[in-house]
Every structure is written in structure tokens, then in C-alpha cells.
Amino acid sequence: MMAWSMLFGVVVAALAVAVAAAVDATGSVEQIHLSLTGMTTEMAVDFVSTNSSTCNVLYRPQGSSDPYSHAASTVGWHFSEIGFLHQATMKNLKHNTRYQYHIQCADGSSSQTMSFVNAPQREGGLKVAFLADFGLKNDVSIKSLLNASAHNEFDFLILGGDFAYDLMANHSQIGNAFMNTLQPLTSSMPFMPAPGNHEKKDNFTQYYRRFEAVAKNAGAHSGTNSSFFYSWDTDNVHFVAIDTEVYVFYNETQHSPHPFTAEQQLAWLEDDLARAHANRDNVPWIVMFGHKGWYMDFEPDTHHGLQPKPVTNFTGFDALANKYQVDLFLGGHVHIYQRFFPLLGLTPGLQYAKPRDIDKACAADDNHTYRNPKYMTTLIAGSPGDQETTLEGMCLGDEVVEPNIRGTMAECQPNYGYGIMTFPNRTHMHWEWLEVKHGDLLAGGDGDGVDVQRTRNDHLWLIRDH
Ligand SMILES: [Fe+2]
């Protein structure tokens, strides 16, 4: 009798330990970010489980009592500094419908319940935020961005390279903290990336693995199986991500988790743009984004009196962009805001960074409207904030200090901020540059970085009779 009760006690204690272990998971689910797949009935998600290789994403329309749908995840990579990097795809989603979802892992850890609107139909047209060169330190725009996304000011965010400064810094803790800082935004709306030079370390491994859901979904649907370069349609816009770093970091790219050559990217880009251009009746706008613009990354060779050598080689991108009449290019790398006049880019052998032609005639008197420009318009939005700060000295009034590209731009601003673009119809798109100052920078600010002042400091109507 005594032995029985002792055994019973042991069993109860063991069960209690087992239950406690299940509830008291030691791991966490974090760094959750959604991405578009190119299918309007799907939403992809990347996330990290610090402890578990087996997780499930459970989702259903918000407010519904339907049983949850399950999206099993796969692990693309396990790295002790980060955890298990999972990808999953939520499918059979209805348009313009809010879904709630949460993530459960085998170790008992789980996320909180989050939500997103699938394929939102916004009155007035699609709205997209763009920035590049965003660091964890001096992240001036972060509160404004999180606030703007919480207030539904845009439908998704594009980041054109140079993340966190850097993703792998301090044993990946900078990258982990950066992705967690953005999570309130990226778990509630898609986050679409392109690689920059700050992602080159370890052959771009961290960039590729942290955005592997993009490769497996948008990349797969656009024929690249890659998050380095890919495309997708949303509403009336064909978006194209390009990797401007392949020329500079050719060897790293060749040894990346998804190796490719500059020539392969250009061959894919030509095919993609040709199809998008032929599809203008259905999807009139083509917007390309990457890290560097047309005039960046030349190697001057003045000592030997030779022509400078193009490193990024935008000649390849620009020739295709103009052949297929890409409307807009968005980039960063220089930490300022620049709005160029539509221009025809470079040909090899021409003088350093000078465009072949500029279309200023398309600009209305106030310079805030480009009507039927002959060439692609370039916008550089590389100053949401990072540890390198803005390049104060690069602008001279509305102009740029660099003499070789003087006369090419309508605006040059060495301030912090980000852009939001709107696509109301097939002929008009609107861009706004939103300068951000947080409390630390404001006179009288209390230094906690919470007080945010946002000012529209530039805008552009791009009008094209597609
Ligand atoms: Fe850069």
C-alpha cells in the first residue's frame, strides 16, 4: 500500500515536470516577417525558433470560429547564433481579408497572435513604403515607420539593401535585434528585400537565409528561386528586385547559398522585363529596386590617365530598363535623399558617371511633375538612419556636390526619412519623401527618441500614358 502511493506520487511528480516543461518552453519564436509570394492567395513567413526544428503556423480569418489552417514550416538553416530559420506559406487566402495567425513549436514555445490583411484593396490605390540603409544604431525612422504601419499608411515595406549594420555583427546579435525591432511592422504586413554591400560577409549567407521564404516563394514564382533578384505583381505594379552587388562581390556571390553570375541575372532580367512590358494592359507600372543607383561605384583611375572602370556596371541594368521602359528605380547606398530627372544612363567608356541624356523637358514648372518622361526616373532614399549617419556634405542646395553628376537631379536633401508611393491608376503614381526627426534631434526633445516629427519635404507626380 505504502509502495503504491509512493509510486503514484512519483508518477504525478514526473507528469508535473513534463507539463511544466511543455508550458515553460526555454526557447522563443521571434524575428517574424511576412513576404509576398506573387500569388494573391498566399502569404509567406520567415521566423526563427531558437530551440525547435519543428513548428507550425496556424491561421484563419480574424473573428472566424473556423478551425485553424496549418502551414508546416521547413528549416532552411540552423545557426547557433540565431536559431532554426523557418519558412512557411499560408495558402488559400481570401482577398482583402484580415487573417490572424500564430506559431507553435515542438518545444512548447509559441508566438503571440498576430494579424495581416491579405491582398488589401485600398481606396486611392496601392501604397508602398521604401527605404534603404537602415541600421539598428541611430535608427531615426523606426518609430515613425512602426507608427505609420500601425495606422495602415501603407500596404508593404521594401528595404533596398544594407540591413542592421550588420546582420552578422556582434555574433549575429545586431541582426537578431534588428529583425525583432521591425517585427511589429513585418509580422503585420509584407517586407520585401534586396541585398546591399553590407550583406556581403560570409558570402551573403545571412541575407539569403534570413529571407529564404522570399527565395522559396516570390523567387520560385518568378523563375529565380532566389532572394537576390526576383519579381512579383501587386495590383497595377510589377516590382523587380535586382542585386547590384554581384559585380563588386562576384566571388562572394559565386559562393553564396544560391550562386549566380552577373550574366545570369541580366538574362533573367531581360526575360522578366520583356514579359512585364508585354503585360502593360493588365499591369501598367514597372518599378525596379536595388541597392545602388546608376552613378555609384566607379573605380576612378586618374593616376594612370585611364577611363574609370565601372564596378557596379549599371550599364547592363540601365540598357534593359530603358529598352522596356521601366518607370522607376529605387535605391540607396548614399545616405541622403535624391530625386533625379529621368535620364539615360551610362555606356562603357563614357566619362565618369555622366548620363548620356537627361529629360528635363518632361518636368512641369514646379519640378514636381514628370509628364511622359523619355527615360526611367531614379529615386535614392538611403537615409532612414544608421550608425554612419547622413552624408551632410553631399548636397549643395537642391544640387549635388559631385561635379560629374551636377545638373541631373531635382532634389538633394541630407536628412533622415523614408518614402511612400501611391499607385492610384494606370497613368499616375505619386511619391512622397517624409523627413523624420525623433526626440533626440529635436530642439527641446527629451532625448528618449520617442517624440517623432515627420514632414513631407518633397513629392513627385509621375505621369505616363502607358
Ligand atoms: Fe551600401
Automatic annotation (TrEMBL):
<dbReference type="InterPro" id="IPR041792">
    <property type="entry name" value="MPP_PAP"/>
</dbReference>
<feature type="domain" description="Purple acid phosphatase N-terminal">
    <location>
        <begin position="30"/>
        <end position="116"/>
    </location>
</feature>
<dbReference type="InterPro" id="IPR008963">
    <property type="entry name" value="Purple_acid_Pase-like_N"/>
</dbReference>
<dbReference type="GO" id="GO:0046872">
    <property type="term" value="F:metal ion binding"/>
</dbReference>
<dbReference type="Pfam" id="PF00149">
    <property type="entry name" value="Metallophos"/>
</dbReference>
<feature type="domain" description="Calcineurin-like phosphoesterase">
    <location>
        <begin position="127"/>
        <end position="337"/>
    </location>
</feature>
<dbReference type="InterPro" id="IPR004843">
    <property type="entry name" value="Calcineurin-like_PHP"/>
</dbReference>
<dbReference type="Pfam" id="PF16656">
    <property type="entry name" value="Pur_ac_phosph_N"/>
</dbReference>
<keyword id="KW-0732">Signal</keyword>
<comment type="similarity">
    <text>Belongs to the metallophosphoesterase superfamily. Purple acid phosphatase family.</text>
</comment>
<dbReference type="GO" id="GO:0003993">
    <property type="term" value="F:acid phosphatase activity"/>
</dbReference>
<dbReference type="InterPro" id="IPR025733">
    <property type="entry name" value="PAPs_C"/>
</dbReference>
<keyword id="KW-0378">Hydrolase</keyword>
<dbReference type="InterPro" id="IPR015914">
    <property type="entry name" value="PAPs_N"/>
</dbReference>
<feature type="domain" description="Purple acid phosphatase C-terminal">
    <location>
        <begin position="377"/>
        <end position="438"/>
    </location>
</feature>
<dbReference type="Pfam" id="PF14008">
    <property type="entry name" value="Metallophos_C"/>
</dbReference>
<protein>
    <recommendedName>
        <fullName>Purple acid phosphatase</fullName>
        <ecNumber>3.1.3.2</ecNumber>
    </recommendedName>
</protein>
<dbReference type="InterPro" id="IPR029052">
    <property type="entry name" value="Metallo-depent_PP-like"/>
</dbReference>
<feature type="signal peptide">
    <location>
        <begin position="1"/>
        <end position="22"/>
    </location>
</feature>
<keyword id="KW-0325">Glycoprotein</keyword>
